Amino acid sequence: MVIKIASLEEAFERAVTLTHNTDSRVIIGLIGKPGAGKSTLSSYLLKKLPKETTALIPMDGFHLSNAQLAILTRADRKGAPDTFDSYGFANLLHRIKVKTTETIYLPLFHREIEESISAEGAIYDHTSLIIIEGNYLLLEEDGWAQVAQSLTESWFIDIDHDKRVSRLVARHIKFGKTPAAAHAWANGTDARNAELIETTRAKADVIINLV
Fold it and tell me: What is this structure's pTM?
């Protein structure tokens, strides 16, 4: 049975519930189309949950570098499933799930330079709740198929289409695109990726609609 959540507070309560009565690490996957509000939700949860035992892993850290995208001639659709190191990401989540007594380092993505910095993030042995942000956590192609196996629960964020696109355009402009380029990317590459992400919605354990 799919669980439906309609507020940030409900999402927080659900996260707390998952951590009760378990000695295993809890890994929550936040899935959503570009601009759906994954970062908004994760930021709220991180403020409310215990800082010493909670961590965030954005999938964006596994973007292929701009140099690799140029070699593969995929730079014009950065953000598509095959522009990430999906196998590396899946392997990281598996390590985090089973290796609970060691520090595990991970790359973090920086929009201002459009690149990731290796080993900038860390999951420590005392980290018991991990929030994953990503578009393709429920995708079945290539290395993505292994990701869902490491998730305790998957949460899919629903949002009004026009509001999402407006938010996405504003974000592109903030990080350097012209208004025309921002609209073109949001309604081109981002739109194609959003259609693919929508096909995975039915696999989610939880649907979140933050009206």
Answer: 0.93
